[in-house]
Here is the input.
Amino acid sequence: MIEIAEIAKEAVNTITPFLAAGGTELIKDAASDLWASLKGVFKKKDEEKLLEDLEKSPTDIATKAKVEYVLESELKNNKEFAEQLLKIISAVKKTEEYLNYVSQVGNDNISVQGKISNSKINIKK
Here is the structure.
């Protein structure tokens, strides 16, 4: 089985593209299962604040590291949850939404990953 720390990191790295591209409104289907699983871990007030911070700044490395730490602590104590989370992550990574997310990084920069079809991008200066 994959290391617990890697599962925590993978879970955070799998959900953050959705948050970066459009927030929780984009989290649907399999991704909603992942988001619900993550939210279930963060029950204490200060931990809930961490998830709020992740929603606001999904590319912030320090915030991601804190979220991973809390999640890793939970996974160490609950191997069954770790296995379940791995299955959910795998399901999310197979979805069109995950494969086709668009994220903007910095000013006037955009990166597109995955297959994009029937789309038009207008750039105005």
About this structure: The first helix runs from residue 4 to 22. The chain is about 65% helix and 5% strand.
